[in-house]
Design goal:
Elements: H1 2-8, E1 20-30, E2 46-56, E3 71-78, E4 84-90, H2 100-110, H3 121-130, H4 132-143, E5 155-156, E6 161-164, E7 170-179, H5 190-193, H6 198-209, E8 212-220, E9 240-242, E10 248-250, E11 267-268
Parallel strand pairs: 1-11
Antiparallel strand pairs: 1-2, 1-10, 2-3, 3-4, 5-7, 6-7, 7-8, 8-9, 8-10
Helix pairs in contact: 2-3
Amino acid sequence: MAAFQDDNGTHAGFRRNHAKGVCVTGWFESSGQAAALSKAAVFRPGRVPVVGRFALAGGMPFQTDAPATVRSMALRFLLPGGEEWRTGMNNIPVFPVNSARGFYEQLLASSPDPVTGKPDPDRMKAFLAAHPEAGRALSLIKQRQVTSGFANSTFNSLNAFRFVDAAGASVPVRWSTVPVQPLAADSAEPSAASDKNYLFDDLIAQIAQHPQQWRLMVTIGEADDPTNDATLAWPAGRRQIDVRQRRHTIAPKQSVTLDFTRSDVACFPSAQFRLRRRNHWPSRFAG
């Protein structure tokens, strides 16, 4: 936490990471197709409420929106009986590091030099030499297609998990939320770049017009797929199942409200499920 604060400054009342974000509510409607693989209640057929948050990586709540900044979708599924399922996903294919120590050292290496205001190239070079997995992962991340906004971004779990069925058998899985909205590459037009909140403004406007939707796709791993290293992608062609009945939907026009001003933009509303506005999500929601 101290490294985040040293890197980004002190911003009382905000998360240390993914500080700039928009909160949303909606629903998830399960198809029941994952119930054969997992006994988790969230995968039984039916609809459950969802609270969500879209955000940008980094601990600066007033940072200017930029195409290359990592985007995130965090979801909290509110199940019957008080049970919850929480997941955080990013719009990158892999994570840059595979350990807490590596993440800490990456923060130190990428922190701005007090004189230049930019990261020290020598420190980053030393970090990459000590963490060759980070160099490989960053190469994959740079190759990803950057879309025009939150609404047409795919968000990935990055970590691997295990689904356990009713008989106790388990399989490794990763999951993604894949947008129903049409794909469009980021144009990086000057008009957009000059608006410091353009990604959030666009998302809020889109939700105000009609619900935004994603498919929850689960990828089934095989025995030799890595499950303890988020810097490594699984091979293409792994079996996938679409676990949504229709899609998860975010905020229809009549239910969208905002919780920010242009000068205090730390919590907006949005998500791929039918969402209404919520207050700022505390930092305990893990990404």
